[in-house]
Design a protein that fits this description.
Layout: H1 2-7, E1 13-16, H2 19-25, E2 29-32, H3 46-65, E3 73-74
Parallel strand pairs: 1-2, 2-3
Organism: Clostridium collagenovorans DSM 3089
Protein name: Selenoprotein B, glycine/betaine/sarcosine/D-proline reductase family
GO molecular function, one term: oxidoreductase activity, acting on X-H and Y-H to form an X-Y bond, with a disulfide as acceptor
Length: 77
């Protein structure tokens, strides 16, 4: 699905808990998530810490959307 949306000219970011799977399916822009039960946060960090972590991941994904890529790219922290 990710590749088809990209083919239509719409950039896509795949926020993934298992990056090797994203690489296997051919996603172009990959942002690593935290973990399977909580991909965009960590409730063990408390409310403030969790909010900061989620914001960091979303900001990384927005930056990835704005970045031209020629090949699969993993946007690490």
């Amino acid at each position: 699905m990710v590749k088809e949306i990209e083919r239509a000219g719409i950039p896509v970011v795949h926020v993934a808990t298992v990056v090797p799977i994203s690489l296997t399916i051919g996603a172009n822009r990959i942002v690593p998530a935290i973990g399977i039960p909580y991909p965009l946060g960590d409730p063990h960090l408390g409310e403030e810490g969790d909010k900061k972590l989620r914001r960091k991941i979303v900001e990384r994904a927005l930056k990835a959307l704005q970045t031209e890529v020629e090949e699969q790219t993993v946007f690490e922290g």
